Amino acid sequence: MNAMSNKSLFQKELVSEALKQSFIKLNPQRMIKNPVMFTVEIGTFVMLIVTVYILINHDASQGSFAYNLCILFILLLTLLFANFAEAIAEARGKAQAESLRKTREETPAKLIQPVGELYLNEIKTVSSSELRKGDVFLCVAGDTIPTDGEIIEGLATIDESAITGESAPVIREAGGDKSSVTGGTKVLSDKIKVKVTTEPGESFLDKMIALVEGASRQKTPNEIALTILLAGFTLVFIIVCVTLKPFADYANTPITIAALISLFVCLIPTTIGGLLSAIGIAGMDRALRANVITKSGKAVETAGDIDVLLLDKTGTITIGNRKATGFFPVQDLGEAQFIKACVLSSLADETPEGKSIIELAGNAASNLSVENPLYIKFTAETRCSGIDYDGGKTRIRKGAFDAIRNITEKAGHEFPLPIKLKVKEIAENGGTPLVVSQNEKVIGVIELQDIIKPGIKERFDRLRKMGVKTVMVTGDNPLTAKFIAEKAGVDDFIAEAKPEDKMNYIKKEQQLGKLVAMMGDGTNDAPALAQADVGVAMNSGTQAAKEAGNMVDLDNDPTKLIEIVEIGKQLLITRGTLTTFSIANDVAKYFAIVPALFIASIPALQGLNIMRLKSPESAILSAVIFNAIIIPILIPLALRGVEYKPIGASALLRRNLLIYGLGGVIVPFIGIKLIDMLVGLFF
Amino acid sequence: MNTELIGVIATFLITVALAIPFGKYIARVFKGEKTLLDFLAPLETRILKLCGIDPGRQMNWKQHLLALLAINMLWFVYAFIMLLTQGSLFLNPDGNPSMSPDLSFNTAISFMVNCNLQHYSGETGLTYLTQLAVITFLQFVSAATGIAALIVVFNAMREKATEGLGNFFDIFLKSLTRILLPVSFILAIILVFNGTPAGFEGKDTITTLQGDTVQVSRGPAAGMIAIKHLGTNGGGWFGANSAHPLENPNYLTNMVEMIAQVLIPIALIFAMGFYLNRKKMAYVIFGVMTLGMLTLLIPTLIAESNGNPAIAHMGISQATGSMEGKEVRFGPKASAYWSIVTTVISTGSVNSMHDSSMPVSGTMQLLGMMTNAFYGGCGVGILNYYIFIIIAVFISGLMVGRTPEFLGRKIEAREMKIATLIALLHPFLILVGTAISSFVYTKDPSVGWLNNPGYHGFSEMLYEYTSSAANNGSGFEGLGDNNWFWNITTGFVLILGRFLPIIGPVAIAGILANKKYVPESAGTLRTDTGTFGIMTYAVIMIIAALAFFPALVLGPLAEYFNLYHV
User: Fold this and answer.
1) DSSP tag of A144
2) What is the DSSP letter of B352?
3) Which of A60, A568, A593, B140 is most buried by its number of CB atoms within 10 A?
4) pLDDT, tens digit, for every residue of B266-302?
5) Looking at the domain assignment, is residue B117 inside a domain?
6) Do B400 and A248 touch (CB under 8 A)?
7) Per mean pLDDT, which range of A427-436, A594-603, B263-272, B459-468 is the poorest?
8) Which residues from chain A sit within 8 angstroms of residue B532, using beta carbons?
9) Are the Cβ atoms of B420 and A232 closer than 8 angstroms?
């Protein structure tokens, strides 16, 4: 998958498929969806009639046969180029989809039949395509999971590299937020029972494949608005060209049909008209290349408009979980002794925090063991864990400040003031204090700290320049949350967040008219994912989360939203700049064609021929040729997208206006002149 | 620097210097803040009460448009009947006849839509009654209609705007009592003191130096000439308009009339800044419009000052510039400046004959009306500009990677549809109209409209439709236009060219006001920057002006190249 994104824009097999499609797309029923190019097709058809007429009648009033044939040929080329742009974008999307689909080719599935032929719960091997929603299948080590589903029993390590490119295996288990499995991934160990969650052909991948293949691609609202504007321009130029005929008759200046159609085709925005749908398809394709599956093109566009971004602290801003960073014993206790107690209490602690305590203790932890230990597990009631040994004579507990305080105070011991102060200090610095007690007496405190991901601050800076406000969501207390928020450079935070807090925050921002994006994976994220304008679910998340969001990130990378925002912006920028370029081109085309139209009968208009084009025929041909070849020249730009730079809207406008606006005025003057030097040899 | 040029520059600077405080005043009037003329409030209340209007009743954009169209319809019927019967009504000392139905149709529409295309001559075509009760009346109310429509759009542009956009009749009445009437009063007094007639006697007879007797038309003209300019109407009391010595007696009145016609269009730009508290945006719009005006003015000044090479060729000195069709008391530069301001805004009054302008000037005058958004008419200029802003916002919004939004509201397919249609309308009306007349004339030149054959004749037809569509009212007067063909076709062009460009922006603004307000962020495209201004300028030039390029080539540009490049 990752290898795919490095391949060149035009692969051989894609090009030949696209070429074939370019001709198939000439079908007027398809062309009519693109009003700009449809009018070009009509013009081409008229030229065909004119050319045939000249061939039969040898009528010289419409110009030479060769000249008319050239115009006809170039117009046809213009159409084919535009079709090719769309076709190559589709072909690339299809190829991309195909590589995804390969991961889910027919695989055998061990279907569990509640009532089998011989026994209850009989296992029957069927093809993956025969699985229906609600079916349950079994997967053991070495099996490829046949389709998307949810684990209902068991736990397994799974290699998801086929879809994420990530080689480290992940653990999936029944219940909770990590129960979802994706078709095409491989079970490495253990055994799971999986319930099928989608009908065949309706999984996310299938939907995405359909979208990029263009079958169910709908125009986005923005694309519709642009199409209206382009249709408007086309109408203006229809008026300009149709009325030119009586004007010319009045001035006794005959205009050939070829010249009139050429003028029309050159003036209407064929460049953007031809590339518009390719840009849209390429946008979704780019999202797919970033390993994000979008449910619609609109979601990608909306991503470009995002004002507020909600991010979970854990795993996004900070690396996984908290780590122990310091031991602070009470005064009368040696550090070594305190560390020993801490390590003992964490020996059976499987939580990342517990492991990190042993890690921090280092050598002091090695070979430490006691006889007949009784490990006390963490429960929601006691909110502490620990160990009893020496037959219960030594009792070590570690836990949150108030939990340990309860224990000590109940036993009639006083909570030492220095530790109280230390606890406060740790919390103020964004850490989490873990108080340790021995025999109901406080012996010290362990500092746990969040480790902020390297490079995350720069990413948030970039988002801020784009105008996106970042909000950190965390279960931490406000003090800790504030510290981390400042350190990571997020603009706002929600502390002690409950699932509904996210939802409320999103609603509040939306009421202010802002667009909100969030990432989530758990089932309790689902309502917020649905409420957010852009909800990105992790592929590792639950089915409910994936259903609620409008994108799925195959890499499970929470910072992916930044890339999605940029892809969305690129999509719009590419449309805008190419529209500007297309319209700006008209200036030069007017100066090429209009003098050529009238110069025969009004020789003084030579003064208007500022490009000094050789003859009226060569001038018109050059303009039409330029108009045609600019489309394939710009295809790579349309597919790759115009680069987005977070330099502020006005600066970006200035930049793009200079490159595509001013450039759009100047380039055709040069291009048409150069083509004329060549064409002028023949006409 | 020569005195004539200083006169032009001084006129422009005085206009701007007056327009800024006047704009502030206008904003205060419609904000309901204290102003100097608050003593008129009881009168306004009484008028509204008499008409059964509750000024507190808020209207949505559709109700505003309905009110606007309804009162305009009434005025049209009234004006049409009055003109049709004026010959037999009172206040007709010169015994002028009633108008023919097609001319009444054209004239009634023309004044209702603030265009003042005059297919008649004031001295013989109207009576004092219709001059006052029809023409002057319509000049006031049509200007007030434009201002009121604009204020509705301003209301919709406010941050907290919702459905209710004020009461149309209240805004309309205040436009009259607080803006148009008081200023017209001052202007009329200045004119009277400089020799413009204001009495009710009929024609006077004087004996010239050569001993001939000449009948000189008079009448209560001063008030009408004041509102003709202040309201960007342009229709003159006399046939020769402001080239007539009684309508525009001297250089001072010439300056006053030039200032008067641009005053409100520029003041309204600043009023927007004060009203919406978006001064920077107002400055940018003013900058773009001024740039556009200068783009047209500078070539015109140069062309007129350089004189006509064809006349120079005959051995007549052109040292004083091109004087054909110009008044000696104004000279070529003041005439050039007038010809551009009167076309960029929709006045259409003239102090020189545009028909005799140099081809470059003719092109610029036409372009002024074709773009129709550099200052533009009373109220409607900014409405036209609004459409271009919407298109510019849309394209440049895309260019910075955001769904386009203007003043915190998203621009989507529906608004684009309206904006595109309105942008399309102007070239449609002008080009199709000219195409039909060219076709008819080519088929049968004996219709005899054109006194000048060839390119100039084409320019005359193009100019007439351009002037109609832009609601300008000036003419390349070589055209024989008082016949049913021109009266009827331009009549329809006038109506469409007036009301659709009002309906469009009001509808867009109204729809946008109902959308959710999105506060600005760092990623939002600001519309009050120089860059965006240049974008808007480019949109106007490439979309509005270039569509007319082929037509201009066959008209004034062909003349130009034949004059200089043969």
Assistant:
1) B
2) B
3) A568
4) 999 999 999 999 999 999 999 999 999 999 999 999 9
5) yes
6) no
7) A427-436
8) 650, 653
9) yes
Phi-psi region of A110 (alpha: psi -120 to 50; beta: other; left: phi over 0): beta
| Bridge partners, B427 (sequence order) | none
Q: Which residues of A touch B543 (CB under 8 A)?
A: 233, 236, 583
- Distance from C-alpha of A44 to C-alpha of B414, rounded to nearest angstrom: 31
Is residue A127 scored above 90 in pLDDT?
A: no
Strand A394-399's sheet: what is its strand order? A323-329, A441-449, A432-438, A394-399, A384-389, A374-376
ipTM of the complex as predicted: 0.91
- All residues at 6 or more sequence positions from B271 whose CB lies less than 8 Å from its CB, including other chains: B23, B24, B26, B27, B30, B154
Whether the CB-CB separation of A487 and A504 falls below 8 Å is answered with no
Residue among A243, A307, A604 minimizing CB distance to B561? A604
Range of the domain at B243: 39-205+220-564
Nearest to B432 among A243, A579, A584 (CB): A243
- A chain contacts of residue B359, beta-carbon cutoff 8 Å: none
Angstrom distances, CA of residue B454 to CA of A248, A378, B247, B285, B357: 11, 100, 33, 39, 16
The set of catalytic residues of A is 312
A239 in contact with chain B, both atoms CB, cutoff 8 A: yes
Give the best-scoring range by mean pLDDT among A48-62, A108-122, A522-536, B19-33.
B19-33
Please tell me the predicted confidence (pLDDT) of residue A501: 85
Does residue B320 contact residue B334 with C-beta atoms inside 8 Å?
Answer: no
Q: Which pair of structure tokens corresponds to residue A36? A: 């700009």
Using the Cβ of B553 and the Cβ atoms of chain A, whether some distance falls under 8 Å is answered with yes
- Is the residue at B474 inside a domain? yes
- CB interface of B with A, residues 427-466, below 8 Å: 427-428, 431-432, 434-436, 438-439, 441-442, 454-455, 458
- Give me the pLDDT at residue B262, please: 94
In a domain, B476, yes or no: yes
User: Count of domains in chain B?
Assistant: 1
- Residue B428 domain-assigned (yes or no): yes
Closest CA to A211 of A105, A83, A106, A100: A100
With H, G, I as helix, E, B as strand and everything else as coil, classify residue A518. Answer: strand
Q: How many Cα atoms sit within 13 Å of A11 on the Cβ side?
A: 15
Question: Are the beta carbons of B554 and A247 separated by less than 8 Å?
Answer: yes
pLDDT at A163: 63
What is the H or E stretch that residue A560 is in? Answer: helix A560-598
